[in-house]
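Hi W.,

Here's what went into the run:
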Amino acid sequence: MKFGNLLKKELRELITLQAMMGMIFTMVLFIVMGQIMGGAMEEGFDTSTITLCNKDNSAFTDEVLDAVQASGETEINFVEIQSDDYAAELERLDIKNVVIIPEGFGNSVTVEKKPAQIQFVSQMQNGGLAGSMSTISASDIISIIQDVCMDEVLLENYGLTEADIELIREPMELIEYTTLNGKISKVSVMELTAVTMMQSMIAPMAIFFLLMMASQMIMTAISTEKIDKTLETLLSAPVSRLSVLGAKMVAAVISALLNAAFMIVGFAFYMIGMMGGAVEEITASTVLETTNLPVDAAALESVTSLPQAMAELGLTLTPVSYVLFAVQLFLTLAIGLAVSLILGAMATDIKSVQTLTMPIMIAVLIPFFITMFIDINELSGVLKLMAYAIPFTHTYTALTNLMNGDMLLFWGGLAYQIVFFVVCMFLAVKVFTTDKLFTMSVNFDAGMKKRGKKPVEE
Amino acid sequence: MATVLEVKELSKKYPKKTKFAAEKVSFTVEEGEIFALIGPNGAGKTTTIRMISTLINPTEGDALVAGHSIINEPDKVRENITYLPDEAGAYKTMKGIDYLNFMAGLFAKDKETLDKYVERGKAICGLGDRLNEKIGGYSRGMIRKLLLARAVMTSPKLAIMDEATSGLDVINALEIRKMIKTLAKEQNMAFLLSSHNMLEIEYVSDRVGIIADGHLMVVGTIDELKEKYEAANLEEVFERVVKNREIR
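Here's what came out:
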């Protein structure tokens, strides 16, 4: 009954209406951002329409443009460019770019038999990647026009058959294989990397947010109680110190999980919103570019069979792996909480709480960045040892180790974390069940002159 | 009258300190008695009170609360005491009534007792409807009244209060002093107070212990001390004991 009472109080302190509003706001912000970004990316990647000004009225040009439209993939929006002041013209027509087929285009290819000129006017966009996407995808469409032109020239000028053209266009077929840890799959390594990269980004982000939130929560909870002296009131009541400690830790875990859930849902929607459309468009345009033909089922086979390829390469997690990862995640959280508890007990005021968050922040950030950009095993001996000495590193590498089947590394990391947790918990219990909770403090105000522990007394 | 608190040569030395914060402090508090520990800042009042409240462990000596040792039976001791620290706060996000419920829940063994404690708390604090508001919006005086009510609502054998009326205006402070006297008289509750306010101590206490430099210098009733030191009031006694180290 008393533990329940304590837990209820801790939860009410941590999960307030404001905290819930904050969580919902973060989630909604991610979702909205995803939609906005997704919209911008999709618009940028859009290869379905092209703005074109045809100043050449030759039969050849008409045939080319008909062929482009007949592919069913690209719709041509014809405009009239009336002057050479292209900047003003783009402004007037409210368009970002335009392809101009000048007069004499058809004549140059069919009669003069020399390369014709085609103009592409594009407005440079400020404001990031999405802005320049439309130019990139418009360039793709120009290459489609070029390919259709080539087909026409080969058909008309050299009398080749469609089968000949097909062979010229694709004299070879690329079959890609990817190997991983002795396993092999018939899949493009580029496509596989694109997918696994997204996965390997979400997990560390989740770990990072979870750890930071839980740590800050318990640190604030302990230090506020100490500073407000509510801890003295609480610990002079007939409750065991361990149940006070336990209630705080359980509440911080629940609250952190809730926070992380909101954030991850929001983040997942953000990724889906932003990348969903864009990935489809990239894939489709890549296929178009290489085959010059409408996307067919065979061309997309490698994309749709990605999950199968991932399974073949062992890049998917088994239920046992998920359980193992969950255990490690929980252990990570417990280590973070135990360390934060000790640090929180040292705080003498709110300012010192912020400073005391630093060690945790550094220990969480270093492996986060290392694992995001490089393989830890590629580090030199000492650096590798230093990275592995940070207990959180093992959590960031756990998913990769489980996928790659590096079980020795996984179990080693887990064992290290267990030992680390036991030591931290022993110290936390020692702090909480002895005088240290009230006598231990770090004086940051005097830090410039003398840094050290100062017992509180009267 | 039964002894509620028996302090036996209680000493405390903090780590890395050469001097004792409290040394061989001994005194007793009887049932229904109001005992005040007075002394200058850093004399060892809070250290002594914290040891009796089982918050910190003594280096030497012991204290018995209702017959239970603070060293060997701290759990039993906590069942018989309440402690109100100086300048203590309360959980700002909680409503006043929820705070009383929460604290009562730590002492009560069943729902009936819990409700009884909360009803008493509500009556004692005198905050009325404002108990339904969040503590974050309370004034310092309101918080102190709430905490005082919390400290006595469970009718502990010994209520330990560090600067009980700090932050309260004259009228509120008077009410609290009267309340302490009434509770001691009518419910036989014992109080261990610590204060800087000599007027308050003179009005409310049955006996006084003057502590200086970690040592309990003298103990007695107000009249006894005044007579012993041939002083007009407690302030004079205090000055002569603390400043001049006169031990009679």
